[in-house]
Amino acid sequence: MLTNQIYLLFSAVLIALGLAAFFLARARASHLRMNGTAMVAQPDQYAWFSVLSTAGPALLAAALGAFVLLLLGADIPILYLLGASLAVAVIGLLVGLVQVRPDFHARQAIERVIHGILAAAALVSIVTTLGILISIVFEAVRFFQMQGFWDFITGTTWAPGNSFLAAAGRGAENASAAQFGSVPLFAGTFIITLIAMLVAIPVGLLAAIYMAEFAPARVRNLAKPVLEVLAGIPTVVYGFFAAITVAPIIVDVAGFFGLEASFNNALAPGIVMGIMIIPFISSLSDDVINAVPDSMRQGSLALGMTKAETIASVVLPAATPGIISASLLAVSRALGETMIVVMAAGMRPNLTANPLEDMTTVTVRIVAALTGDQEFESAETLSAFALGLVLFVVTLALNMVSVIMIRRFREKYRTNDL
Amino acid sequence: MSQSFDEITAQLRNRHRKSAWLKWVSMGALALAASFLVMFIADMLVKGLPAFQQAQIQVEVSYSERSQEMPPAAVSEDVHRLVSRGFLRTLPRRMRDNPDLMGVTRLEWVLADSAVDQYLKGNHSALKESQRPVIDELAKQGRAELKFNTRFFTSGDSKMPELAGIAAAAMGTVMTLIVTMLVCFPIGVMTAVYLEEFAYDNWLTRTIEININNLAAIPSILFGLLGLAIYINFFGVPRSTPLVGGLTLALMTLPVIIITTRTALRSVPDAIRQAAFGVGCSRWQVVRDHVLPVSLPGILTGSIIGMAQAMGETAPLIIIGMVAFIPDVSVSFTDAATVMPAQIFTWAGEPDRAFVEKTAGGILVLLAVLISLNATAVWMRKKFERRW
After folding, report:
1. Which of B22, B208, B366 sits opposite A122 (nearest CB)?
2. What role does it play (chain A) (predicted)?
3. Which strand ranges, in their side-by-side order, compose the sheet holding B53-62?
4. Residues B16, A306: contact at Cβ < 8 Å?
5. What is the domain partition of chain B in residue ranges?
6. In this predicted structure, what is the pLDDT of residue B163?
7. pLDDT over 50 (residue A417)
8. Which of B130, B112, B108, B132 is nearest to B122 (CA)?
9. Can you give the pTM of this predicted structure?
10. 20 to 30 A from A22, CA-CA: which of A196, A249, A251, B279?
């Protein structure tokens, strides 16, 4: 029998058992009540309790069993496992029916079960984070066993070379040893992020100042959704825009000034990434500026300050922690951004400060390492996880700092309002 | 030291000028951001609209034994390089399927080669100098023209630009999003209900909350690493399939759904809960019969936005192999598939210039879907917004 059919049959039988539990328990409860017994719960509640007691333990048993089998790698056919869990379902059905007693608080029991299910759902997010951490750390450790951690952090040459041959047992054939020094990748990432921030922060912040302090409500109501369109454009589209439209323009402009630019220059992805981040900065800064209490503006204006002076010396300094934290969030976005750099930045690790040259980033190398044909066990493939780990740690730290800062900022003004 | 009125007025004027200057500069910044959007959309339209048209030429096709063996012989020598090789390849099959065709010679509109297509659209074309007069002549007779490109919407990917279409990718997107929706909608709503309605304030719930915010800010490519290491390498889910793609995107979309659902639940006034508790409902009954129905539009709005985000996501899908070359539309959750953004990425990497317009055409379709999804969400928010 095909595995698909087994699963189909399993679900069909389980659903049938559940329906049987529902109708049998309800019939039993209605019958009892009809005979004049006072019951603490409604027949439907007994029915639902039976359904839960039938399907819940069975599904739990199947899931646990599958997980344990997978972990131990035991070779027990899936058929037995599902058969066993159906047996659990039948037992659950009988238990459910026996529980249809006048003094059984079916509603409270359902309540407890549902509370448990909801809590389990909430744990999924924790499991996901743990999953990311475990999967990345686990593979990264394997990488660091092959390549030194210190070389990875401080090396200035990234040349995976033919490390995939070594993994295939043909290491002797390649003369040059693979080198995994991540400094050029992080330098490239940093420069592209810097360019993006140079575009996004001034434009985004000024746009937020206009929307919060100057704009009439009509303009504001129009501008916000328009900027949100900018935020909703998929990154692959920005990548295409950067590679096909912006990069040639930059090459032409650089040529006009007598400079030579590569078609994979770092400026194009940087600028386009900046455009992508503008709405992010502007909407967060807008919130922060709006959160500055009006009494501060009134005080400043009452002293005879002009609007610009009020903004520059009262509103913005008050909003600075929030603006910085928005910028940090934007930096963490730019560090992790993949599609734009994959499509528009170069593939060559290049340690330079000239944005007209091509350079590569961490995310580009992750994609490159995992889309090749090499063995999964090779150092190059595993290097993606090492890079991912650093990316994870850095973005997590940035996010934490900015979340804490914005919370402090909010709290500060909450007390002032009193 | 005292100042004269004139000095003070001049100073004041200067300060007001500075104030006006800030206003104009900040307005300029907003206009700049908006003009980026306009420029961007105009650029995509200019590059992408030609993709919806494809050159066809009218040639004499002779169905014979000889063309069964050697399809290029079905059309005359001077045009057989102008006709799409993809069309010629289907000839033997057409003859087999329809034996009546044998021995017939007739004028037909057939798909032209992409070089002809690019030439007719006035782009740089690989067409040989000797062939240009032939096409010019055909065009003058009205036998070569640009027609609406239905293939673009009905066929899968192809290495020949004139045959390539987005149908396979669209189907893959739909199936991937179905998996994403089935996984993350129930879990997301359940998590939000737990945190808003059931949970006590203890370390566990605080950890979950911090976690959700962190998940929302993790770079998307790391979810691809998770999918690769856990789903594919550990659980053995087949690579490149809508199943693994959907599962990966679900984890990414989960925080969005949880956060928006919590906002929706929080906007339900406590009076409704108190009234329900007052008549003796249990907590779950309050949630099921009163809180959830009232907040459903808000939850759906958040889910639409989350789905739109998932739909545009590419980076994690590249990692788990969803950039496969898919020429046929498949409808199975465990077959290799590709999605719209991944298809765009693949086309963007094709060296053939004719693929540039295909890429931009695909982008236009994707943007149209995304903008209409977001517009639906905004419309729903407006329509169902309630002030208590």
Report:
1. B208
2. Part of the binding-protein-dependent transport system for phosphate; probably responsible for the translocation of the substrate across the membrane.
3. B105-111, B53-62, B144-148
4. yes
5. 50-148, 166-384
6. 87
7. no
8. B132
9. 0.89
10. B279
Quote the CA–CA distance of A410 and B221 in Å, as a whole number.
Answer: 31
C-alpha A145/C-alpha A377 separation (Å) is: 12
In sequence order, what DSSP letters do the residues of B74-121 get, joined into one string? GS-TTTTTTB-HHHHHHHHHHHHH-GGGTT-EEEEEEEBPHHHHHHHT
Confidence of residue A154 (pLDDT cuts 50, 70, 90): confident
Nearest residue, CB atoms, B344 vs list A131, A206, A240 = A240
C-beta neighbour count of A126 within 10 angstroms: 16
Question: Which tokens sit at A31?
Answer: 């019958």
Mapping DSSP to helix (H, G, I), strand (E, B) and coil, where does residue B355 land?
helix
Per-residue confidence (pLDDT) for residue B367, from 0 to 100: 94
Tell me what the mean pLDDT of segment A26-53 comes to: 86
* Predicted confidence band of residue B156 (pLDDT cuts 50, 70, 90): confident
Q: Which two tokens stand for residue A32?
A: 């009892």
Segment A186-208, tens digit of pLDDT: 999 999 999 999 999 999 999 99
Residue A418 has what pLDDT? 43
* Gap from A225 CA to chain B (nearest CA, Å): 9
> Is A231 a residue whose pLDDT tops 90?
no
Strand B105-111 to strand B53-62: parallel, antiparallel, or no bridges (unpaired)? antiparallel
DSSP string spanning A181-221?
--HHHHHHHHHHHHHHHHHHHHHHHHHHHIIIII--HHHHH
Please state, in angstroms and rounded to a whole number, the distance separating the CA atoms of residues A139 and A379: 10
**Residue given tokens 């998932």 in the structure block:** B310
Within 10 Å of residue A46's Cβ, how many Cβ atoms? 32
Most A CBs within 10 A among B22, B187, B292, hence the mutation to make, goes to: B22
- Look at B218 and A392 and tell me if their CB atoms are within 8 Å: yes
Amino acid at B199: A
pLDDT of residue B382: 85
CB A268 within 8 A of CB A238: no
Q: What is the DSSP letter of B199?
A: -
In this prediction, residue A253 carries a pLDDT of: 93
pLDDT at A161: 66
Whether the Cβ atoms of residue B70 and residue B89 lie closer than 8 Å to each other: no
- Taking the C-alpha atoms of residue A311 and residue A303, their distance in angstroms, rounded to an integer, is 14
Calculate ∠ Cα B75-B81-B82, nearest 5°.
85
Q: Is B40 on the interface with A (CB under 8 A)?
A: yes
> Which superfamily does B166-384 belong to?
MetI-like (1.10.3720.10)
Which among B211, B217, B315 is the nearest to A339, CB-wise? B315
Residue to substitute from B225, B231, B283, interface A, most A β-carbons within 10 A: B225
Mutate to test the interface with B, among A132, A137, A313 (most CBs of B within 10 A): A132
pLDDT at B186: 95
- B-chain CB neighbours of A308 within 8 Å are 15, 18-19, 21-23
pLDDT above 70 (res A173): no
Q: A67 or A393: which carries more pLDDT confidence? A: A393
Q: Residue A235: pLDDT above 90?
A: yes
Q: Give me the DSSP letters along B14-44.
A: HHHHHHHHHHHHHHHHHHHHHHHHHHHHHHH
Would you say A395 and B223 are in contact if contact means Cβ atoms under 8 Å apart?
Answer: no
User: What pLDDT digit, counting tens, does each position of A267-286 carry?
Assistant: 999 999 999 999 999 999 99
Between chains, do A203 and B29 touch, taking CB under 8 Å as contact? yes
Contacts for A57-61: CB closer than 8 Å, 24+ residues apart:
A57/A88, A57/A89, A57/A91, A57/A92, A58/A14, A58/A17, A58/A85, A58/A86, A58/A88, A58/A89, A58/A92, A59/A14, A59/A85, A61/A85, A61/A88
Q: Does position A170 have pLDDT exceeding 60, yes or no? A: no
User: pLDDT band at residue A77, thresholds of 50, 70 and 90?
Assistant: confident
CA distance B45 to B51: 10
Q: Beta-carbon neighbour count of residue A63 at 10 Å?
A: 11
Q: Which domains does chain A have, with CATH numbers?
A: 3-104 (no CATH), 182-371 (1.10.3720.10)
